[in-house]
Amino acid sequence: MVRKISFEDIACQLVDKIDGFSCFLFGSADEEKKSLVDRRKEIGWFRGHSSVDYESGTSDLGSKCKRFGITGIGASYYVMNCNVTIKTQDLAVGRRIAKAIRGTSPGGLNGVQAMAFPHRGNIEVACNVESYQTTAEENEKSVSNPRQTTEQIGCESTENTEAIRKEWIYSSPQTIEQRVAELARNEGIELVGTALVGFTPDKAYELAIKNLREGNSERWKTQKVEHM
């Protein structure tokens, strides 16, 4: 029997069992539903470890202790990881491209969070891609890949499953790659390649249903990085 447990329960248990442990809540665990990115901004995470403010009240539970840092606890809808590498060592160019494709930027890609890093002699635009809620009309114009129904996968539909899948969409790896390639060309830079780490939301759903039916709950452990 599976016992229901809340994020607060998990956080409180960790605080009780680990001396110096402190945490902040994000996503579904946070009362204001703030994203992990927003909570990280509040503590200065993106400015580097030395800039993190452990005393500003950003800790929701536990004692504030620089020695042990701070842990984020929360949940969100499935997050895809898609990394696009461009043929340059100019980090400033990579940062401009990353900023342009972020969902928070004008003309950016919905649900995309992006940063640029040096990577094997080139620059990688690393993207976390969140699924986002949409209207029925927008769903018809979704940038997601065409979806299989549970029947096409060979499974029985569960209550509300297809409705939820239609309501939440995401920017596809192909769309991200095309946008990065376009912006890179404008800078006179070529595309090296794209790596999808893990699964797209649709592939994760398909494999979960399929492997649970087959009794193979650990199939994900053997999944390799997909290169496009």
From TrEMBL:
Entry annotated with the keyword Transferase: yes
Entry keyword Ribosomal protein: no
UniProt keywords, alphabetically: Transferase
Region of interest (Disordered), ranges: 137-157
Molecular function per GO: folic acid binding; transferase activity
PANTHER family cross-referenced by the UniProt entry: FORMIMINOTRANSFERASE N-TERMINAL SUBDOMAIN-CONTAINING PROTEIN, FORMIMINOTRANSFERASE-CYCLODEAMINASE
Protein name: Putative formimidoyltransferase-cyclodeaminase
Protein source organism: Stichopus japonicus
